[in-house]
Design a protein that fits this description.
44% of the residues lie in helices and 19% in strands. By secondary structure, it is an alpha+beta fold. The chain has a 4-stranded antiparallel beta sheet, sandwiched between helices. Strand 2 and strand 3 form a beta hairpin. Helix 2 packs across helix 3 and helix 3 runs antiparallel to helix 4. The longest helix is centred in the middle third of the chain and has 18 residues. The chain is globular and about 45 Å long. The two termini are 23 Å apart.
Length: 138
């Protein structure tokens, strides 16, 4: 549905990046109260929200759709958690700004639904210096 990695593939990708490239920023994104979207508006609406977030992440991190699996992961547990590992050495300020833009874009997605669905998400990030394991990052 999203074209993003599942958790297992994402974990393999991050481990490879940590071994070969080292360093980067690990983002954990949680869609706040997502269960309420499914319970109130149905799973079709929930699927649209999930797909919308995938698009927001691609845009927010400047990744073309065909490249998205190489840069993003979606964790399927409750289907409301995403993870991103961004290679490179962007500054903490740049990483925090990307996170803020993603949160704002997701919040604005509420307008697509006539503000009936109030959307918000939480993002935590950790700037990795090439010494961590995937398990520690996650």
């Amino acid at each position: 549905m999203t074209g993003l990695y599942n958790r297992g593939s994402f974990e393999k990708y991050v481990k490879l990046q940590l071994n070969e490239v080292g360093g980067g920023t690990f983002y954990m994104i949680d869609l706040d109260d997502f269960k309420a979207v499914n319970d109130t508006y149905g799973h079709v609406a929930g699927d649209r929200v999930i797909a919308g977030m995938a698009g927001i992440l691609r845009e927010g991190f400047g990744v073309e759709e065909e490249d998205a699996p190489a840069a993003f992961g979606i964790f399927f547990g409750d289907f409301d958690e995403f993870a991103v590992f961004e290679n490179g050495s962007s500054s903490r300020k740049e990483s925090e700004e990307k996170a803020r833009r993603v949160m704002q874009a997701y919040r604005l997605m509420s307008e697509k639904y006539g503000n009936e669905i109030l959307l918000s998400c939480s993002i935590g990030l950790y700037r990795e210096k090439g010494k961590e394991t995937f398990e520690n990052l996650y």
